[in-house]
Amino acid sequence: MALSRAMTKEGIEGTERFPSPGKGRGLKATKQFKVGDLVFACPAYAYVLTANERGGRCECCFTRREGLSKCGKCKEAYYCNVECQRGDWPMHKLECSAMCSYGENWSPSETVRLVARILLKQKCQTERTPSERLLTLKELEAHLDKMDSEKNEMNDTDIAALHHFYSRHLDYPDNAALTELIAQVNCNGFTIEDEELSHLGSALFPDVALMNHSCSPNVIVTYKGTIAEIFNSYIDLLYPTEDRVERLKDSYFFTCDCKECTSKSKDKAKMELRQKLNTPPEEEEIKKMVVYARNVIEDMEKMGSIFAETNVYMLHMMYQAMGVCLYMQDWDGAMKYGEKIIQPYSVHYPPYSLNVASMYLKLGRLYMGLERRSQGVKALKKALVIMDIAHGKDHPYIEEVKKEMDEQT
């Protein structure tokens, strides 16, 4: 769809902020959107490229390309061109000198790096930004009253790291304000991902954070560089209701009452056991196995004798095993796991799920690499059907996939 960038004085055309009983605030549509329509785009208030992607992507726009130019001072940050380097300098200067001084001892977490950039942005930018058309950063929920001792200790550790690594470049608010900001980032931050949902960096999008969660979402958040596009669910929707409720309470401090959580319509398939078991396991044994599946990625043969391949914990184990195969360059092994995963993914995830698209992309690229071109093209086409809706037909990721297909024909 065409990008709806027209703004009203109150926010973004086609949307409206409203008080949401039991959830604080929310964002609702004020006009009809069709499948594939772009609701709005939001630039990041602040963002950081993850350290693992340095050298392969531009620090400013996250573009992936060869021949990037490195920062002449720290030799760690890479850019497309002079414009990108200048554009990132107000934020990169926070880290540049420190990286030179600390060398291999430079090790702030991604959260700490993001919070440092937010502090600098707050100092330089006093007016409302294009990222805050509906919700300002200061309005973001922190849920400090719901923090347990472990989360409080993590906040204290991040504050200490901020002072340690950024003391020369930042004027800090008091610890109470820092604690609130870190909590706001942890509750409202976003992970920027590529077309295969690999981690690229972290960012804060206040307007996007205004959207409430549903386990049966009617919109998707995708990324074009460092811009979030709303074509949301806060968590991976693969897991059954009880697990999702636990994850949402732990990270976002609320209980979801969406249609999917109320009906639990997909839970039976998600927790399916083998149909023919000589000795059906006791309920307590199944619970222990679930805990085991969530925390340990080994002994898959034992789990496979009890859990069906549609069981989400078995799927999780197979996904991790697929990742190991990819790391070990066992392409056949990775392909076999992907083939087992894709159909249950298509059932368990909502329509136009990025998780399903990313699995078709992985499979398509594996098929191509193994010279199974017809299967590869078929899988990539299925990925594109979803991506056309989720990302929009003009997204660079779609052009990349189409180029891959053309090169193989």
Automatic annotation (TrEMBL):
EC number in record: 2.1.1.354
Family annotation (InterPro entries): H3K4_H4K5_MeTrfase, SET_dom, SET_dom_sf, TPR-like_helical_dom_sf, Znf_MYND
UniProt biased composition (Basic and acidic residues): 7-16
A matching Pfam family: zf-MYND
Keyword Transmembrane attributed: no
Domain called MYND-type: residue spans: 58-96
Principal EC category: transferase
Keywords in alphabetical order: Chromatin regulator, Cytoplasm, Metal-binding, Methyltransferase, Nucleus, S-adenosyl-L-methionine, Transcription, Transcription regulation, Transferase, Zinc, Zinc-finger
Catalysed reactions, semicolon-separated: L-lysyl(4)-[histone H3] + 3 S-adenosyl-L-methionine = N(6),N(6),N(6)-trimethyl-L-lysyl(4)-[histone H3] + 3 S-adenosyl-L-homocysteine + 3 H(+); L-lysyl-[protein] + S-adenosyl-L-methionine = N(6)-methyl-L-lysyl-[protein] + S-adenosyl-L-homocysteine + H(+)
Region Disordered: start-end pairs: 1-25
Primary role: Protein-lysine N-methyltransferase that methylates both histones and non-histone proteins, including p53/TP53 and RB1. Specifically trimethylates histone H3 'Lys-4' (H3K4me3) in vivo. The activity requires interaction with HSP90alpha. Shows even higher methyltransferase activity on p53/TP53. Monomethylates 'Lys-370' of p53/TP53, leading to decreased DNA-binding activity and subsequent transcriptional regulation activity of p53/TP53. Monomethylates RB1 at 'Lys-860'.
PANTHER family: HISTONE-LYSINE N-METHYLTRANSFERASE SMYD (PTHR12197), N-LYSINE METHYLTRANSFERASE SMYD2 (PTHR12197:SF193)
Name this protein carries in UniProt: [histone H3]-lysine(4) N-trimethyltransferase
Organism: Danionella cerebrum
